[in-house]
Structure formats: C-alpha cells, structure tokens
Amino acid sequence: xxxxxxxxxxxxxxxxxxxxxxAFNPWADFDPDYDVAYARSIRKAQLxxxxxxxxxxxxxxxxAEACGYQGGRFTGVAMTCERMMLSLHPTVNAKxxxxxxxxxxxxxxxxxxxxxxxxxQGFNEPTDTVVWDACLAAGLAPEEFLLWNIxxxxxxxxxRMLTNRTPTDKELAEGLxxxxxxLAMTGPLLLFAVGKKSEATLRAxxxxxxxxxxxxxxxxxxxxxxxxxxxxxxxxxS
Length: 238
Known about the structure:
By secondary structure, this protein is of the alpha/beta class. The chain has 10 helices and 6 strands, in the order H-E-H-E-H-H-H-H-H-E-E-H-E-H-E-H. The longest helix has 18 residues, at 169-186.
C-alpha cells in the first residue's frame, strides 16, 4: 500500500466516529430502505481511492457546505454523483473519479426512490456536474482538484432521508475538524469556498479562501466565471 493510500485509509477511518441527529454518515451509517448490502464498505473504498489519487497531485481544494442526498450521500465522494461512478454521466466517468469502475449504493429496487431513472441509473446531482465540468473546462486534470465539504456528512430533514438541510453552526464546527485534517495531509493548496456558509466557517477559523458563488439556485454561471477567473489570475488554467 502506498503512503497516499495509507493516509487516505486512516482519514476515512476517522470519519466513522461521527454521529449526530438528522444527519447521515455515508461511511458509517446504513439505511435498509435505500442502501444496498455492503453500502458502507463501498462508500469507504470509493472515498479512499478518490483521496489517494489526489494526495500529492491536487493543486486546488474546493470546499462546499455539506453532503447532498443526490451526490456524496450515496457515492461517499463529495460533489460526485452515482451516474459519474457508473460512467453513465455525459462528461465524467468512474476512471476520472477513482481510477477504476465505481458502484452505486442506492437500491435499484427501493420503493422509496421517487423517479424511475433513479432506479435504473442511480442519482444525478446538477451541482456536481457544474463543479466537475468547470474544473475540467479550466484545463485541470481530475487529479489536480480535490472536492470536499465543511460538513462532510448528509444533513436531512427529520424523518425524510431524501432531503437536504442547512447544517447547524455546531455541525459546521464539528465538520471543520475533518477539513483541517485533510489540509494537514495535502499541504498548502489554493483554497476555494463554495457558498457563504463554507466561506464564513473557513474565515472564522483563520483561513483565507477564495469565495465562489454556489452553483445552485441560479448560481452556475457565476460559479464557473469565478473559478475560471481565479485560476487564470494565478496561472493555473490552460
């Protein structure tokens, strides 16, 4: 096992300890209504491979707010959806994400999935597409950008697993510890905060991220422009 793989494995293991109300830990929690057998092991392995491929090669770190149910909740990888892992996405495939075929962890036979296409192809998250496509369009290789969330777990409304909610200040503070552990592994990277909550949390902790508009709710073009301009100014885009 390489040093990067060992670091990634230890980091993912540290995530297993966190538990909180109305929040799902993709690497430790299991919901039989939605998850396939061995879902936790699949998500752990996918995050380990994702991180190991980027430790030592990433040039920028983009940190959003929290894991969403259409993205990292089922893949284990921030801002990355199941259709990317299944290579059913139009621009992103599993080789780009983890270097090997990925797996879905949502149950195709779950009666609780609201759409037929989700049962057939897994979940798709529009924000994930915007982030990945913007990074690739800037000329970054997949291993040159690292995606994460200040609160790396999935906050949901009580009793409604397929919803997203804003993490509390307490959750953001608890999640920050994992971001700092990640930064300790990667060393100095150009740091981007995706959305106001992420930016405020990082600044309160003494970091100076470049703030980007969150792609959701009509912010996709502003996100793309902000990222492209910042990378160009620093000579990091092609």
